[in-house]
Amino acid sequence: MPSGTCAAQHHWIELQQLGRRCLRRNATLTAFTTLCEHVLVEAQPAATC
Asked: What whole-number distance in Å separates Cα of residue 44 and Cα of residue 14?
């Protein structure tokens, strides 16, 4: 979970939604974090305040 950014909570909500899809493919939270978090970061930069 990203912290210290203006849009952190907004990102986390969408990350959870994306995570539901990814967790179906990946068995572990580690795989979820590795595969999905960087996708969300690229899709939505944290610079949107």
From this structure: 10
Task: Give the separation between CA 41 and CA 33, rounded to whole angstroms.
Answer: 11
How far is residue 19's CA from residue 1's CA, in Å, rounded to a whole number? 12
Longest distance between any two alpha carbons in the chain, whole Å: 33
Q: Which of 28, 26, 22, 48 has its CA nearest to residue 2? A: 48
Structure confidence by residue, pLDDT tens digits, 1-49? 444 555 556 666 777 777 666 556 555 556 556 656 666 555 555 544 4
Please tell me the distance from the alpha carbon of residue 40 to that of residue 44, in angstroms, as a whole number: 6
Structure tokens that stand for 45 in this block: 């930069």
